[in-house]
Amino acid sequence: MTENNPGAQQQGQPQFALQRIYVKDLSFEAPLGYTAFQKQWNPKVQLDLNTTNTKIDEQNYEVVLTLTVTAKQDEDTAFLVEVQQAGIFGAAGFAQQQLHQILNMMCPNILFPYARETVDSLVLRGSFPPLMIAPVNFEALYQQALAKQQQKVN
Q1: Residue 154 lies in a domain
Q2: Span 132-140, mean pLDDT?
Q3: Does some domain include residue 1?
Q4: How far apart are CA 20 and CA 50, in angstroms?
């Protein structure tokens, strides 16, 4: 009977599933107003990112990737965009270390293209040139965070 029931075959096996992706919070500011368009466009762009995760129940987690992009003309902020791109992910049957890697590397990697597109869309709606944010290596960021944590312990 288990041959006809794929769920029965997967019991005890690690399972990962994307449940939903959504924008949790979003903000766009252009404090210079029209004066931002009167200057030659040569901004300094800074990207800050952060991830958090919250356990919803035994096998579901909310992961939030926050991107903050600041574009400055000289010392003035031309625009500031903040996007909290969130997702609900199901993960069961993983060892604690594997689950930690999934929530801090794989999930943000899934969310990043959505956040990047949202930022670009907001910048264009603000009448600024397109902003193509370069890909991010979440595995490298995760390894750096682990190394910092190890340094604090030692």
Answers
A1: no
A2: 91
A3: no
A4: 19
Q: In this structure, what CATH number is given to the domain that contains residue 103?
A: 3.10.420.10
User: What is the pTM assigned to this prediction?
Assistant: 0.86
Among 140, 127, 55, CA closest to 89: 55
Q: Which residues share a beta bridge with 90?
A: 17, 60
Q: Quick check: is 2 in a domain?
A: no
Split into its structural domains, the chain has a count of 1
Q: Please count the CA atoms within 13 angstroms of the CA of 69 that sit on its side-chain side.
A: 28
Q: Please determine, for residue 6, whether its predicted confidence score (pLDDT) is greater than 60.
A: no
Cα 32 to Cα 44: distance, rounded to the nearest angstrom? 15
